[in-house]
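Protocol step 4 of 5: obtain the predicted structure for the target chain.
Materials: sequence only (see below). No template structures provided, no constraints applied. The aim of this step is simply to have a reference model before the mutagenesis design in step 5. Sequence pasted as it appears in the construct record:
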Amino acid sequence: MTARRARLLWVLPCALLSVTGVFASPYATEIVSYTGPFGPSPYDDPYALLGKPSTKFWDSWSKKESRVKLVEPAYNTDRSGNKLITTVNQGASITVKFDHWIVDDPLNWYGLDFLVFGNAFFTGSGWVQGDSTNMNTYMLTGGGWYEPLTISVSPDGIDWYTYESGPYGDTMFPTNAYAWDRASASWTDQELDFTKPVNPAYASILNSGGISAADAIDLYEGSAGGTGFDLAESGFSQIQYIRVDGLSGFAGGEIDGFSDVRATPEPATACLLLSAGAGMVWRRRHRRANT
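Step 4 output (structure tokens):
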């Protein structure tokens, strides 16, 4: 086998992977349908659910921009006045679509396949003063502000599966968009990963309180949070549609966005590893053939 042919055998599948999903948006890209009632402005726009979940918001009282954090969620608008989250009241519904298939993939982090982001937050020891509050000393007191919303999935927009018994949108795990620097007791500009879930095994620790917000961020292990869902329960091997509905008995909750969970390792990384491995195999065979 020639070197050129060996490379093509590995490069072509990787190129196909790129076309079929690696470079697709990990976030919802289309609003398919919606019906109210939604919240008052600025919480009334279903299109706020598209794209990457919120990383910063504009505090209209302090006139400052703040990072979205697990003890202070997205609300109001961003600095430019763009709406960030949508309140989905009882009887309301929003259906979004992804530009690629979300797959029930055993390589996904913790077996979870997609994430739903809201504006839940952990309760703590006092009022959070924007980005100036010290996460090293701010203590979680247990529980959080959760407003459950029903999530359903579909491969075609016709056949649906509803997570009747949860997980629910706008619950665990609250969004934390940026990394915290313990040494300088300040926020960094390093965004955390909106396509990596928090380890579900940490839910009881995070919900129990008695740890600092910085400790909680450490437990996120690079994740930006979000409620994780496993497609295996639905019986669908892949889906493109997600629907959020107001839950009976609750006044309403907020949704910020959705994301596809990336595999570990990611497909692109796997291709690089496979390509490197193929190259090593070819070189070894080539050397043997010439000895």
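Step 4 remarks: The longest strand covers residues 93-103. The chain has two domains: 1-26+267-291, 27-261.
Proceed to step 5.
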